[in-house]
Design a protein that fits this description.
This protein is of the alpha/beta class. Helices cover 45% and strands 23% of the residues. The protein has a 7-stranded mixed β-sheet with strand order 3-2-1-4-5-7-6, with helices on both faces.
């Protein structure tokens, strides 16, 4: 039992794909506990782009693409995830929400995206950055698949958040496994200054990193 628990915690805080039972459990947790956050991200994205094609990197259960599709019916959204189980769950969620013709999900590694150059008008990612084993390579892949003039919005936790801020977040989580997973994810995340230094090594030259509570928001323009 302890080995299985260690495996899910490691999966939640590293680049390993979360599969099977643990993927199902995490997807349920995200759908029930993080939907408000995902809906706000979807509103931000849909407010910036009304038509075109959007990519969600590390889509998990696919809530962000689904919510974007509801808000912007002229947008096509693709979700990319390393987990086969997550892709299956996200696809089923899209069917249940009635947006399967507008939203699709693809299995793939963000460090080697299975897309042509200049494929997307906008790219979004939430809570995925700290999972990237090769962050510079992923940022450069985002640059590659973005169209000229396109933008990316990347959000994640921030390692230098205070203990009080993190405790305030996790105390509202019912599952102790997920509480542990969030704390490990914080430890595996970056500071805003670390991200700025990483971005200096990428193909992006127009970057903005902004701290927001226990997290950060990164805006990139090609």
């Amino acid at each position: 039992m302890m080995t299985a628990i260690k495996r899910i915690v490691r999966g939640l805080s590293t680049g390993e794909a979360i599969e099977g039972f643990f993927a199902v459990r995490y997807a349920k947790f995200a759908k029930e506990n993080m939907r408000i956050i995902y809906e706000q991200i979807a509103k931000d994205v849909a407010g910036q782009i009304k038509a075109g094609t959007i990519l969600d990197v590390g889509t998990g259960p696919g809530i962000i693409p689904i919510e974007i599709a509801k808000l912007a019916p002229k947008i096509k959204v693709i979700g990319l995830d390393l987990s086969e189980t997550m892709v299956e769950i996200a696809s089923e969620n899209a069917r249940e929400e009635g947006v399967a013709e507008q939203v699709s999900f693809k299995l793939g590694d963000a460090a080697e995206m299975p897309f042509e150059d200049s494929s997307f008008d906008f790219i979004v990612s939430s809570g995925s950055l700290h999972h990237w084993n090769q962050p510079i390579k992923v940022f450069n892949e985002i640059y590659r698949v973005l169209k000229d003039g396109g933008e990316a919005l990347i959000g994640d936790l921030r390692r230098d958040s205070s203990k009080e801020e993190i405790d305030e977040i996790v105390k509202g989580i019912d599952s102790w496994i997920m509480r542990l997973g969030v704390k490990h994810s914080v430890k595996e995340s970056y500071t805003s200054s670390e991200i700025s230094k990483l971005l200096d090594k990428t193909n992006f030259t127009d970057c903005e990193v902004k701290e927001e509570g226990v997290g950060m928001q990164i805006r990139l323009r090609k």
